[in-house]
């Protein structure tokens, strides 16, 4: 029944707002799928192997174990540098690029949550304005019907906006945590590799 009610609102007074929220939802799903693929699957690596190679000061082996993500690029930059200080400088420069890669588009999901909520509220306000505006043109018997239908239609936009916004904000929190965890590993392994290179040098 609830699904049928929402489907009906796509052809009612709130239809423009419902379609805009749907477009926002589609964009959010695309962002979430791409970022989840990158942060969870594409950048997977053997943490134990990386830690062991870093402990030995073998940057090449650590980069190979880190895979094709930014962590591997950072460790590879350290392995290709000459000396511990140069390695640290090279890894610091590469780490800045790693941060940009890890955080790319994650903030879009927070914006999507806010935008969906605001569009839903705007649809609510417009629907109520239309509902009350039609009361003066209705007969006494039809006023209650117009008012209830108008408010129900207006509330649908708000509810739909929240149904999109809440998962978007939850997805943002999860992906942001994944990105921060990955960047913490980048920073930690880079520092450990630089320390191992200093000891061996």
Describe the structure using short key phrases.
201 residues; mainly alpha; 87% helix
Give structural notes:
The protein has one domain. 87% of the residues lie in helices and 0% in strands. It is built from 8 helices and no strands. It has helices at residues 2-9, 15-42, 47-56, 59-66, 70-80, 84-103, 106-133, 140-200. The longest helix is centred in the last third of the chain and has 61 residues, at 140-200. The radius of gyration is 26 Å and the shape is rod-shaped.
- The CA-CA distance between the termini, in Å, is 72 Å
Number of helices: 8
The proportion of residues forming helix, as a percent range, comes to over 70%
Strand content: under 5%
Q: What gyration radius follows from the Cα positions, in whole Å?
A: 26 Å
The overall pLDDT, averaged over residues, is: 87
Question: Any idea what the shape is?
Answer: rod-shaped
Whole-number tally of structural domains: 1
Helix/strand order: HHHHHHHH
Low-confidence stretches: none
Decide which structural class fits the backbone: mainly alpha
């Amino acid at each position: 029944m609830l699904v049928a009610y929402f489907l009906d609102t796509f052809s009612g007074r709130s239809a423009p707002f419902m379609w805009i929220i749907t477009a926002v939802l589609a964009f959010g799903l695309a962002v979430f799928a791409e970022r989840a693929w990158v942060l969870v699957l594409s950048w997977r690596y053997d943490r134990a192997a990386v830690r062991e190679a870093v402990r030995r000061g073998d940057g090449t082996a650590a980069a190979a174990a880190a895979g094709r993500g930014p962590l591997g690029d950072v460790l590879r930059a350290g392995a290709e540098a000459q000396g511990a200080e140069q390695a640290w400088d090279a890894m610091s420069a590469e780490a800045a690029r790693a941060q940009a890669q890890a955080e790319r588009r994650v903030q879009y999901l927070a914006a999507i949550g806010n935008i969906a909520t605001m569009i839903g509220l705007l649809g609510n306000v417009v629907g109520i304005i239309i509902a009350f505006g039609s009361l003066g043109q209705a007969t006494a018997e039809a006023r209650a019907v117009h008012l209830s239908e108008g408010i129900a239609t207006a509330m649908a936009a708000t509810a739909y906006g929240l149904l999109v916004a809440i998962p978007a904000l939850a997805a943002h929190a999860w992906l942001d945590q994944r990105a921060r965890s990955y960047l913490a590993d980048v920073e930690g392994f880079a520092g450990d590799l630089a320390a191992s290179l200093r000891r061996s040098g």
